[in-house]
Amino acid sequence: MKKTFENLSALLTDDLNAVNALITQRMASKHAPRIPEVTAHLVEAGGKRLRPLLTLASAKMCGYGGPYHVHLAATVEFIHTATLLHDDVVDESNMRRGRKTANLLWDNKSSILVGDYLFSRSFQLMVETGSLRVLDILANASATIAEGEVLQLTAAQDTNTTEEIYFQVIRGKTAALFAAATEVGGVIASAPENVVSALNTYGDALGISFQIVDDLLDYGGADQTLGKNIGDDFRERKLTLPVIKAIEKANKAERAFWDRTIANGDQHDGDLEHAMELLQNHGALEETRDAAIFWGNRAKTSLDVLPQSQIRDLMRDLADFVVNRAV
């Protein structure tokens, strides 16, 4: 399945190179050299460029022949990078993509301010496309991402958090940008409305599946897959889908365990292992995996309205690639 991502990237190599060149150009700062230093640390850390790739693929699949899909792909990557810089400060993270975080190497102030700079750069790039609709889609996505992050702050350590709230959070903080990335590709190509809607549905479902898999991998994936340690979500007291499912089935003693470790943050040696045992015993990991598969399948079927093409087939396979990270 890794081959799917590589094939799609290879098909769009020239466009990806143009995106990387534009990112390098626009993250420069004549007066504040720390901006490119901090940005380069994260941008060049080996991220897959999945979101900009989705924009490029969507535009090409819809027959776009102009230059602005490159601007939009760079916009999406800048928004994503800005949110990562802010997230690492909020989460007090030390690792990102297998490297020390910018807030650890520099400081929180630098991460927040450089993130703000990248948001501003992203809006400059949006405006250059001349499309008010594109600006509307990406501006709404930016607001939704922030809203999702704030909702997560209030729900993350509350053991009464429901699956409904969890999906509101991940729709905001993750799926919104996936959906915007694919939708603007169709819009810039002047695709029919049913195609633009399908691309939005694809991105939304793919983003949900992607985040569910990330949450699942935290309780059993390889360190290099995530660039962080197994159990980080538990240690950071995040109420992700596997834990929510386990709490739903918990007896009184198990509920007390989750309240102590997640709600109160009173964690001891062996608690992570016990948490993983509870997840296994209640089938929470398997149910979470099933949820990822459901949303992955929804992403695939949404593309049925588009004519068959190599890019469409690879985008369908990309949904399997996302899910199969957890298999």
**What does the overall shape look like?**
globular
User: Which structural class matches the secondary elements?
Assistant: mainly alpha
Strand content: under 5%
Mean pLDDT: 89
CATH fold naming: Farnesyl Diphosphate Synthase
The CATH class, by name, is: Mainly Alpha
Which stretches of 5+ consecutive residues score pLDDT under 50? 222-226
Give the count of structural domains.
1
Write the element-wise H/E pattern from the N-terminal end onward.
HHHHHEEHHHHHHHHHHHH
- The CATH homologous superfamily name equals Farnesyl Diphosphate Synthase
What share of the residues lie within helices? over 70%
Helix tally equals: 17
User: What profile does the largest beta sheet have?
Assistant: 2 strands, antiparallel
Major beta sheet, strand line-up: 1-2
Number of DSSP strand runs? 2
CATH architectural grouping: Orthogonal Bundle
What is the gyration radius calculated from CA atoms? 20 Å
Tell me what the structure shows:
It is a single chain. The protein is 74% helix and 1% strand. The chain has 327 residues and is mainly alpha-helical. It is globular, with a radius of gyration of 20 Å. The model is unreliable at 222-226 (pLDDT under 50).
Briefly, what is this?
This protein has 327 residues and is mainly alpha-helical. It has helices at residues 2-11, 13-26, 34-43, 50-61, 68-90, 102-105, 108-128, 132-155, 163-188, 193-217, 223-226, 232-235, 241-248, 252-263, 271-281, 284-302, 310-324; strands at residues 95-96, 99-100.
